[in-house]
Amino acid sequence: MSAYADFQNEVYLKGLFGEQPTQPFGWRETEAAAYAAMTPGAVGYVAGGAGGEDTMAANRAAFDRWRLVPRMLRGIPSKRTHTTTVLGTTMPAPVMLAPVGVCSIVHPDAERAVARAAAAMGLTMVVSTASSTTMEDVAAEAPDASRWYQLYWPADQDLAASFVHRAEAAGYGALVVTLDTWQLGWRPRDLTTAYLPFLQAEGVANYFSDPAFMKGLPEGDQGAAVLKFVGLFNNPTLTWDDLAWLQTQTSLPIVLKGIQHPDDVRRAADAGVQAVICSNHGGRQVDGAIGSLDALPGVVEAAGDMPVLFDSGIRTGADACKALALGAAAVLLGRPWVHGLAVGGEAGVHHVLRSFLADLDLQAGLSGHASTSELSRESVQRV
Ligand SMILES: Cc1cc2nc3c(=O)[nH]c(=O)nc-3n(C[C@H](O)[C@H](O)[C@H](O)COP(=O)(O)O)c2cc1C
Fold first, then answer.
1. Which pTM value belongs to this model?
2. Cα of 315 from ligand 1 centre, angstroms
3. Residue 76 domain-assigned?
4. In total, how many domains does the chain have?
5. pLDDT tens per residue, range 347-365
């Protein structure tokens, strides 16, 4: 059995024989390399947040207020295992790929490359409704891999039902319903470049391949299809009561993404969903909001036995350790894998994932945990 941490030995040994890494290891350097490789419009779309981007800053700042407290002489095995199971999906480590739409603006191989890289590491990819590749094609790229489907609940129940049924038929293991994006946030970077990829028919593959969506549209009229997409993407009328309908449409576990308030967790539990993701969409929706990690302890407490997953601001193994210590069942990596995709396609995502898992493995071990499952409130201190 090889351990994630062995990756660093491999790198150093290769260096001894004159082989230098082609991709950076630090997340900031990878981010910089990614933005150097992308078009200005794509950089704005990926890097940008809502308003003054204060929520994005708060997401990172929240991690600074929690610190790991390393423990010694605990006989930690050199090869640690981090396997966990969330909603019936077994994972080699409590790490997933967050849903990110429109990957074609980052790299031509888009979600196919991401699916292969995730599968190679055994990690579960959450595939976005706004993917540039249909959910069936992403599934076919890594048929044996586990995958979850993220639903943007459209303002057309037939289409919503169709998305859900297609995801179930294509072998997706859970339905992640994103609640925070019933309308796009005010995003100055995208406004400045006047760039919204969907209007250029990017990130609409699931819509344009759907019989419920295409019904009544003149064949081959992309403009009409884009206009229809614009008309039904926004769905501000949804309420907690609508979840009952969704539950009649699927036997998949339902996960609510975008939860930040303990009362919303209680409502989620009352509605009978299976899990929540404590997330603020990477600060892309509501500006001036609390950092997602600041919301996590209250969300976990209100959730009781219901699993809470976490994203928004995770960049390093230490970040993941802190979120896991505060009660997250797993963390979702967002922008970092997108940066890897921009830098090197499939190999770039693979490098980011492998590096992240090595960092996480070392962080957990060196701070005195034989497995990430041992991380607890005792492992961290608020400063
Ligand atoms: C470019 C981009 C596109 C995204 N697209 C989606 C999406 O289609 N569906 C979704 O639920 N979340 C989407 N998200 C939000 C991510 O799932 C995740 O919540 C966020 O990236 C976490 O913040 P972080 O990347 O700063 O850690 C997107 C985020 C980015 C950066």
1. 0.99
2. 13
3. no
4. 1
5. 999 999 999 999 999 999 9
